[in-house]
Amino acid sequence: MRRARCAFRSPGWIRLRRRLRRSTSWSTSHPAARLTRSTARALPPARRPGTRRPQRQAAAEAAQDGVPMQDRDPIAPSTHATPRERPARAAERALWLLDRVAPERAASNIALAVRSAAPLDVAHVRRALGTIIRRHPALRSRFVLVDDVLTRRVDAVGDDPSIEVLTVAQEDADETLRRFAERPFASSPDQPAAGKLRETDGEPLIRAVLVVTPAADTFCVVCHHTIFDGTSALLLTGELVRAYAALSTDGQVPPDLLAEAADFTPPPPGPDSLAYWHEQLAGVNIRSMDLRCDRTRPAQPTFRGEQHIHPLSQGAHDLLGNSEAALQATRNIIFLAAYLLVLARHGAGPDVTVGVPVDVRGGRGRGAIGYHTHTVVLRVDMERPGTFRELVTLTRDTFLAALGHADASIDDVIDRYGTCGGSAENRHFHHMFNYFDFHTSVQKASWTPGGADVDIVEVAPRHSVADLEIVVRTRHDRTELVVHHGTDVLDRTDARALAGRYDALLHSALRAPDTPLPDLTWHTDLDRRALTPSPVRATPWRGGVVAAIAAHARGKPDAIAVVDADTGRTTSYAALVDRAARIRDDLGDAGIGPGKIVALDSARTAATLAGALAVWSLGAAYLPVDHAHPAPLTARRLAGARIAAVLGRPLDPATLPDVPTIPLPVPRATGPWRDLPDTGTLTAGTLAFVIHTSGSTGSPKGVRLTQGNVHHAVTTLAAGLGLDAGASALWLTTFTFEPSSLEVFTPLVLGGRVVAAPDAVRHDPARLTALLARHPVDLVQATPTVWSVLAPALEGRCEGVHLVTGGELLSAATARALLSTGGRVLNAYGCTETAGWPVMGEISPACVANQPPRIGRPTGGHRVDIVDDTGRPLPPGLRGNIRITGPAVADGYLNAPLRHPTDDTGHRTHSTGDIGRLCADGTLEVVGRADRQIKLLGLRVEPAEVEGVLEDHPSVSRCGVITARDAESPSLVAFVETTATVHPATLRAHAARHLPAPAVPSRIVAVSALPRTDTGKVAHTALHGLLDTLPPDTAPADPHRPQLLDGHVTGEALTERLTSAWRAVLADDTADSSTDFFAAGGNSLLAVLLSERVEDLTGHRVSLGTLLIRVTPAALAAHLAEAPSPATPPSTTKPGAS
Fold first, then answer.
1. From the record, what ranges are coiled-coil (predicted)?
2. Long-range CB contacts (< 8 A, 24+ apart) of 1131-1137?
3. pLDDT at position 599 over 50
4. Which pLDDT does position 852 carry in this prediction?
5. Mean pLDDT value of segment 643-671
6. CATH class of the region 1051-1115
7. Which of these ranges, 136-140, 560-564, 639-643, 846-850, has the smallest mean pLDDT?
8. What residue spans define the domains of the chain?
């Protein structure tokens, strides 16, 4: 594949519906702009005496005056003396459409620039460029709508083009070039010159600038991709340099540059090739190409992008020489195979598609400037090859088959068949690959030897339609990977890391091509450092929690241990231990001893804590029981635990097994207190309690937590927060929820006090505020659901307090509310199977500026791994299953034959069932539950992310999202907790601005309070039952508002006017407010006409990108209802009038 650098085709994100007949796949590569700097002796210096600056200015002024046609070099008679037209090809229409979707991004602009240390003669540059434009019809092309058909028009020969001359400081030169390259051509609809697209011819699609600095002159030409590609960049550069050199030498243009080049147009695609591609791409699921490091795609992409260059390691470069013969493939195929593999390692596939450009000029078009590349889509099943050698062979064969049908580009295939395989979306690949043999291609550019040094200047684009594009540029002595990525989906860190892994994987594969693919090394040095296991260590065992509390009772017996916040009654350490000793006697008399499990009343009282200490002192364990739970649930838990006694209030007889009930004694008023006997028989492995998972996403399971788990959790929290001896904590969490052990045992181990709050405080901000005023504490923790209710009322009232939140994903809105309290906010992560919080991090205002906060880093000697489905660790930035190893991991599940496995160091490991990733700074980001992930229209949807977006609306305090059951097609239903009057359409419009269309809930239900588990989490399983009780959704598509607001149409009148626009453009009087524009026969060109009619009727300027997402009048009306008032008044024409 010894071809010049060609332009890529993007995957085409646009949602075009069935019967779409126009192309929507876009090409965005800017090849010449991406050439590395290369020095050649090419341009003679301008021959003008005297000082530089005044003559430079004079030359610029003379250049702008123009040169009469009769004084130019004679040009051969040609057929291009008059304009000529033809309908635009599919690929050209695709690029034209891109400019309408994102006019401000100028994503189809291609820039090439050369820099000379010697001054350039502006008049010669202008004349040289004019010669090349007159020679090549493509450079005189523009695109216009003729009778609503996009048409390519070639202008007649004209004067030399104008050239902007900009004098800037040396340090500003590159930024000036970038801004010039990024300026949209005037045919873009956001330019005032464009006016109505139906009434204005397109503008010229080439422009130039001379950037002058004290050290060098840089000449830059920018062309639109519809008239230009990578080969064109090399041809134009070569001819331009030749023309300038000749003009500078003898004032004459070389005769061969005066002859008109052929106006080449690739032949139409053959039917066999169209059929081949239609079959080849049938059933492509573009969503399977999402990478583990991708962010959620926005509802409307911005097309912002970045570029960076990764020098290929010398080791990998050196291995390439012998690999071509060994693998029986050229270098481009080897690099392409490695690209497929690195995409698969990052989560794509196994059905992987990649777009690759092919130059289709052939013999007839050789030397023709224009847009003459076709993109072929390579589809490779990554489960077929077992080794890299086999993958290279498969890639080679697939590519050769594609070349045999390259007369049909992906644009032609879509233009012929609509969407391949019946897909509702015209998207076939997210990632692109290109290969550029720099040495060979630059030789082909016909550089003129001699003269001044000239550098090719790289004008790196700041846009990208593709998620990821890698261009391999090779020389004899080195190779570079040019990485372009869209910042909507990939951030800079992840893109650079992927390039490094590409390098490492290629090196590994070339060294051992017969190694099984899963065993090839792909980690970079940074990855290896991040994946190096941190030492896992447990807190030294010194008798655990019981021993520490008993020691405090002996050392300071009168110190307050527990405060009843409701009554103000206090319990000293001596009284607490004395009560525990008496309960221990009663339990011993009932036969309770090591290995037994006791049902313990979970009321927030000192008696409950004394009961826990008594149980532990006997070597037994407790199961907390909430009397508010349904009797059948309690009965199942007691039976499963095989309890030996009930400690506390009597239970329902129907619930109670045949075991004794032991009441909790009242405190003694007088007499000496009793100490607990020596607890030296307790070990870190002794079972401490059985706690059930919350059941927020499924059936609760009993988890076995040990004395070592509890002791490590509380000591780790105390150390992590920097709590001093005597610290206090609010007992706010129910005792049946494992984090409550942190609230009670952390302060008791430190010799501090526990402030027991009444249950009502969790839902009553006023009572909590009053409680904290009476009983200041150092630590308060709650789930995000509880904090969403409490935090807004605590603004400025928690200075110096540690506010811990965990158990659920924390939304940005709740995090901001917590920060407003003035407290130190900590985001914690753990699960019932891991006592306490193995991961924790402090939240700052910067953490929640635009997104939910990350969790933090492992604490207390724990290790967090992100693993793939096979259990292999993933490098930072990639999403996978969260696995925790360390001393907080529980022994296992109640009555389960298998315990949690151990690693090589003997520490237990737990796969949490959560999806997350480790960030480059070592912090953990949790995405959601694996068992809550759903797919809608092929899109992987995280309900937790949808919840976070809705919770960021000021009217929503908490949200729960579920999938509607028993529906003809799956859909999302969101329940929002709100006290404000907010219409569902308003919330849907808010969601649509931040989420892809399939992730926007189809129904939003406002409730005064969401159902919660006893642990304070949103009970998602209960939401299904709530949905079943609701009547069918009959809410209007948009709020009933006045028909005129500030002189602009809104509400039902707006929907009516939009419907009339649908009917007029579609020529369909049956269209109504729910008619899908594209399903009803609309296409990209008609959508442009629709946008103009919408502006006429409503005053709102609507981009094509908006129409491609809001495809019905009702959906667009809801969007416009939330938009700012339009700058232009609507037409007074009545709806339906033409």
1. none
2. 1131/1096, 1131/1097, 1133/1096, 1133/1097, 1135/1056, 1135/1057, 1135/1059, 1135/1060, 1135/1097, 1136/1060, 1136/1063, 1136/1064
3. yes
4. 74
5. 84
6. mainly alpha
7. 846-850
8. 84-187+198-257, 271-282+307-361+372-439+449-526, 545-682, 942-1010, 1051-1115
> What pLDDT digit, counting tens, does each position of 78-104 carry?
444 456 889 999 999 888 888 777 777
Query: What are the two backbone dihedrals, phi and then psi, of residue 1089, each rounded to the nearest 5 degrees?
Result: -65, -35
* Token code pair at residue 523: 């980690």
What would be the CATH architecture of the domain defined by 84-187+198-257?
A: 2-Layer Sandwich (3.30)
Q: Options 3.40.50.280, 3.30.70.3490, 3.30.300.30, 3.30.450.40; which CATH number does 942-1010 get?
A: 3.30.300.30
Q: How far apart are CA 805 and CA 698, in angstroms?
A: 22
Q: What is the CATH number assigned to the segment(s) 271-282+307-361+372-439+449-526?
A: 3.30.559.30
Residues in the chain: 1138
Distances from the Cα of 483 to the Cα of 225, 430, 460, angstroms: 20, 14, 11
pLDDT, greater one: 72 or 451: 451
| 167 token code pair | 């004098």
Reading the block at residue 729, the tokens are: 């904590």
Q: Are strands 164-167 and 924-929 parallel, antiparallel or unpaired?
A: unpaired
Strand segments, DSSP code E, in 923-1052 are 924-929, 934-936, 939-941, 958-963, 972-977, 1003-1007, 1044-1045, 1048-1049
Backbone phi and psi for residue 1050, each to the nearest 5 degrees, phi listed first: -140, 180
What share of the chain has pLDDT > 90, as a percent? 47
- Nearest by Cα to 799 from 818, 771, 812: 818
Cβ neighbours for 507, distance < 8 A, ≥ 6 positions apart: 313, 315, 316, 319, 521
What type of residue sits at position 3? R
Spell 287-313 as b/e; 16+ CB within 10 A means b.
bebbbbbbebbebbbebebbbeebebe
List the beta strands (DSSP E) in 591-701. Answer: 597-601, 621-625, 645-647, 661-662, 687-692
Q: What is the mean pLDDT of the chain?
A: 82
Pick the CATH number of 545-682 from 3.40.50.2000, 3.40.50.980, 3.10.20.30, 1.10.150.170: 3.40.50.980
Residue 455 has pLDDT above 90, yes or no: no
Reading phi first (left if > 0) and then psi (alpha if -120 to 50, else beta), residue 611 is in: alpha
Q: Is the pLDDT of residue 972 over 60?
A: yes
Helix (H) or strand (E) holding 1117: helix 1113-1121
Question: Do the two domains 84-187+198-257 and 271-282+307-361+372-439+449-526 of this chain adopt the same fold?
Answer: yes
CA distances from 578 to 564, 574, 611, 644, 750 (A): 18, 6, 11, 23, 19
Q: Which residue has the tokens 């949209």?
A: 184
Q: Which of 646, 676, 641 is nearest to 661 (CA)?
A: 646
